Amino acid sequence: MFQYYLDLAWRSLRRNKVLTALMVLAIALGIGASITTLTVLHVLSGDPLPGRSAEIYYPQIDPQDLRGMSPSKEPPSQLTLIDGMNLLRAARADRQALMKGGEVPIQPEQSTLDPFYVNARYTTADFFPMFGTPFLFGHAWNSADDEAKARQVVISSDLNQKLFGGANSVGRTLRISGTAFQIVGVLDHWQPNPHFYDLNTGSYAYSEQVFLPLQTMIDLHLSQDGSNDCWGNGGGGTDTVLPADTCVWLQFWVQLKTPAEAAAYKQFLVHYSEEQRTLGRFQRPPNVRLRNLMQWLDYNGVVPDDVRLQTWLAFGFLVVCLVNTVGLMLAKFMRRAAELGVRRALGASRRALLVQLLIEAGVVGLVGGFGGALLALGGLWLVRQRSSDYAVLAHLDPSMLLMTFLLALGATLLAGLLPAWRACQIAPALQLKSN
Amino acid sequence: MQIQPILAALRRHRLATLLIAMEIALACAVLCNAAFLIATRWQQARIHSGVDEASLAVLTLEGYDPAHAVDLNARVLAGLRAIPGLQSASVINAVPFGQHAGTAGITTDAAGQHFGGVVDFYAGGPGSFEALGVKVVAGQAPAPEAYQRPMHSFLPDDATVLVTSALADHLWPGGDPLGKEFWVGRFHFRVGGVLDHLMRQRGGEGGPATAEWSVFVPAPPGEQLVGRYLIRAKPAQLSGVLRDARAAMAKVAPDAVVDLANSQTVSDLREDYFRRDRTMSRLLLGVIAALLLVTALGIVGLASFWVQQRRRQIGVRRALGATRGDILRYFQTENFLIVTLGVLLGAAGAYAMNLALMQRFELSHLPAVYLLVAAVVLWSLGQLAVLGPALRAAAVPPVVATRSV
């Protein structure tokens, strides 16, 4: 029966090519626009560490003085060096890492390559196991190396390709800012989007080429990048001079495997703040936050406003296209009143007619979905031509492709429901007579 | 033209009528808001930075040793001044639309109780103020000796500064800003002049109202003010001068690297700064065009269906003496009535959508003129779309009335 209806639908659609084309075009335009913007939104609001993000937390405490305090204010979004080191050494979480971004000159041994600058991440050892970074060769350094201010470095596969042609470079020496570092590991391709662990460096399509111990950076006065927030008499700290004690400038991440651990850690942050207040370092009452990774991204509003606005508009457009389709389908189905009347008179139930008409609508939806997918591919190509940092990420993945067809089919069936129902309300005798 | 019979006919086709009206209403709502967004972006992109954008460029160096700052500044300035066509070269910490520097919160009392907002500080060495070409509306430009106050952190203390009139109005509404004081932490500043306009480096964090909260501080080039140079030349020669300047750095400052992304003419920086707004505007224009197209196609589709359905009635009317013009006008009036209904519904929809957008995005109320324009556009679109089917209806010969029944 299904096949017969399909055949009927196909015949009917071919009989009225202009009307069919109009419907398909409307669906394709609406779906194409929605899927384009939805894909961008999907890519941008994605989980940078799937399967792991629920265990990763970003603690915030408030070390500022009383000036400008208000009870509802959020604590600063980074830590001072003292607090960062205290929390790191307290080691109350399963894993914890303190970090900062920067830029360092690489001085290759090969005379064919000029010195060049790369993005660097200065971090403590847990960064790698906590975020599950994949290693191509070698491994990370450990916390003993952190304390020893080891001249060790983990490099990205891109840099490994550029300097060593992709060979295993573990154990070789790399000159960074005039100092010899030993390469201990080479990362496989790893670029979490958004760049969640430090949003100050740009949220998307940003990655570091070298990773070295934070203590080593402090020891060598390597230049740091990102945001420094100071209060009181705190000096901002220029490129290579460390920020003052009254500046927050470090990111701190912890891994807590269960909600109970998270609650305990939050309690620990409150105790820590109280303790520091008794010591006279903190002046404000404890004001702590412990957001997990996705909450942190949400709190920072990493998805650009423009992208959300575009998604809204695209769906408004889809609704217009659907209303348009409802109108066209109504015209199409009502025009076939005579044919439907004959089928009714021959014994087809209203239900059967409804199914037949909905199948016809479904065929329109599928063809429209196909057109929509093509338009979305074109739309995403256009998006990629733009200069925004996230533009390069806009690709249609299989799940979004499936979503395209489901959305097209669902939307057209919904649009077909009203016209089909109207068309089924035909009195068979009346239709037979008028012919 | 009798409207009564048209209304009666429409009442018989309530569903189809309502569908077209709905489509027009939705199109009207989206159209108004999209057009309003475009206009808003366009207006923002036309903001006046307050400086002579066409004559200015910036050169940024990196990688030098801060200990040699004084020497580097001297070498670079001397090197730049040797370039033919250059009008002036000076040290500055930032330019409008460029990389931002010197953002700080200020208070209007020494104790730090009265928070004045977050503002951008332009710290410039001798000659930079004149080169910027900002207009002083009260007080006076910094005196030569003002550039000698020693720097602390990124600003000199106890400096006499110039604020924009927008910032002055915000900090001391109604009062005379000259001689007023403000603080950044313990650093103290006194207002010696008021500027007409000077945009913040990357726009205001608190929306358009704060876009001009800037302060110009005369400052001595040195370890805290080094590496960024303001170049002024005649607009026609500027790009050539900038090219020469970038090239000259290899000779005069081999210990530094030119940061190309931040060594541009101010016009290019501006272009870059508003690129996102421009792409967004183009995208919205695309949405509007597609929307109008789909709406027009919908009207054509339904109107054709109606014409075909009513061939017999049209034939009867023609046989009873109606002219072709009467039939044509019938369909046009019918379309006009439906679009009017749609526009009325759409006006409510447009305001609702505007309110929803206002809650999520930085946007003001939709001015009524957008609704008027949208109504005119949709009326014209409707008339154009219905013209084809209506002409076909008018071509129905009276003899149809005698056939097929």
Low-pLDDT segments, ≥5 res of chain A: none
> Helix segment count of chain B?
11
Strand content of chain A: 15-25%
Number of strands of chain B: 13
Annotation field: number of helices of chain A? 14
- The percentage helix of chain B is 40-55%
Shape of chain B: elongated
Within the largest sheet of chain A, what's the order of strands? 2-3-8-5-7-6
| Largest interface, Cβ cutoff 8 Å | A-B, 48 and 54 residues
Q: What form of chain A results from the Cα inertia axes?
A: elongated
Uncertain regions of chain B: pLDDT < 50 for 5+ in a row? none
The overall number of domains of chain A is: 2
Oligomer: heterodimer
Most strands sheet of chain A? 6 strands, mixed, barrel
Total E-strand runs of chain A: 13
Largest sheet of chain B: 7 strands, mixed
- Any idea what the radius of gyration of chain B is? 32 Å
Q: Output mean pLDDT of chain A.
A: 86
Relative helix content of chain A: 40-55%
Determine Rg of chain A (CA atoms, Å): 30 Å
